[in-house]
Every structure is written in structure tokens, then in C-alpha cells.
Design a protein that fits this description.
Shape: globular
Radius of gyration: 20 Å
Oligomer: single chain
Helix content: 55-70%
Structural class: mainly alpha
Distance between the termini: 40 Å
Strand content: 5-15%
Number of strands: 3
Number of helices: 5
Largest sheet: 3 strands, antiparallel
Length: 180
């Protein structure tokens, strides 16, 4: 029972990410005309804008044909999400933090997948942040709640895996030391 609870409870995060993502996108679509700035915060450090992205990260694939984009950017994420969920529910080794991280990524993936399937114009992006010329970019590529969830939870998951590996190696070394 405890195992089921540990696996099911993080689904709340996936649902919350999808809901927040879709609600914020609906607000943007209904209040800010396409390709305009709705408001600026802290000077022009953060801008709330309304743009669409027919590709994926950094507009990759935006120049592909509609059919290729539709198949590749809808079908592939659906397959990946399905595989990740299968591993998620079969694996009993993930820590609580890793389970929450995985579900945050799933929520973000589903949020953008919904746009790819139901918004023919593309994924709605609206958070535009000044990047001060770092890596030659004056502004970071515009993103949304789903993108932020994928990045934040992905970093959290990576750090968690690195900590788990480090602890495992440390325990292995201590076991070898005790065995001598």
C-alpha cells in the first residue's frame, strides 16, 4: 500500500503542471494579441508576450513540413511519455524526490503535447527573459510553464541521480573497507 501511495501521490504534480500550463496559455491567448508584449516586469527583464512555436526547444523543427512536425512532435513525445510511465510504475528503486521529478517532467511534456495536438498554430510560449548577451543571446528563448517544469524537474532529477550514485559508491567503498 505504501509503495502504491509513493507512486501515485506524485501524479498530483503532473496534473498540477498540466492544469497551470493550460490555464496560463488560455489566459495569454485570450488577453494578448499574437506576437505582442502584454506587459513588462522589472524594466524589460521579464516580458509576458504571446508567441507560438511550431517546433520544439529553441524552435528546432519549425521549418519542417506540417506533416513531419505533426508526426514527429506529437507521436514521439507520446511514445516517450508512455515508456517513462511504464518504467516509473515498474521501478521500485526511485526515491521520492526522483518520482516527483519524473512526474514534473511528465506534466510538462503533456502540457506541450496538448498544444501540439489541439493548437494547429503551435505551442503557446509567453515568458520572455532578458539574457544580457550571454551565449550571444539578448533574450532567452521564450518559454511556458510546461517548459519550466521540464527544466526545473529535469535538473532536480539529474542532481538526485548523481547524489544516489555518489551514496551508492560511498556505501560500496565502506563495505569493501569493512570486508578487509
Amino acid at each position: 500500500m505504501k509503495d502504491a501511495k509513493n507512486k501515485l501521490l506524485p501524479i498530483i504534480l503532473a496534473v498540477a503542471v498540466v492544469a497551470l500550463d493550460q490555464i496560463t496559455k488560455a489566459i495569454i491567448v485570450h488577453t494578448i494579441p499574437l506576437y505582442t508584449i502584454g506587459c513588462q516586469l522589472f524594466g524589460d527583464f521579464i516580458r509576458i508576450v504571446h508567441v507560438v512555436n511550431t517546433g520544439v526547444a529553441f524552435s528546432f523543427g519549425a521549418s519542417w513540413s506540417d506533416t513531419a512536425r505533426s508526426i514527429f512532435f506529437s507521436l514521439m513525445p507520446l511514445i516517450v511519455i508512455g515508456l517513462v510511465l511504464a518504467v516509473y510504475f515498474r521501478n521500485n528503486e526511485f526515491t521520492k524526490l526522483q518520482r516527483w521529478g519524473i512526474m514534473g517532467i511528465i506534466g510538462g511534456g503533456l502540457g506541450n503535447l496538448i498544444d501540439r495536438i489541439f493548437r494547429p498554430e503551435g505551442v503557446v510560449d509567453f515568458i520572455d527573459v532578458k539574457f544580457f548577451g550571454i551565449f550571444g543571446m539578448e533574450r532567452w528563448p521564450t518559454f511556458n510553464v510546461a517548459d519550466a517544469a521540464v527544466v526545473v524537474c529535469g535538473i532536480m532529477l539529474l542532481i538526485s541521480f548523481l547524489i544516489t550514485i555518489s551514496k551508492s559508491e560511498k556505501a560500496k567503498k565502506e563495505a569493501e573497507k569493512d570486508g578487509e
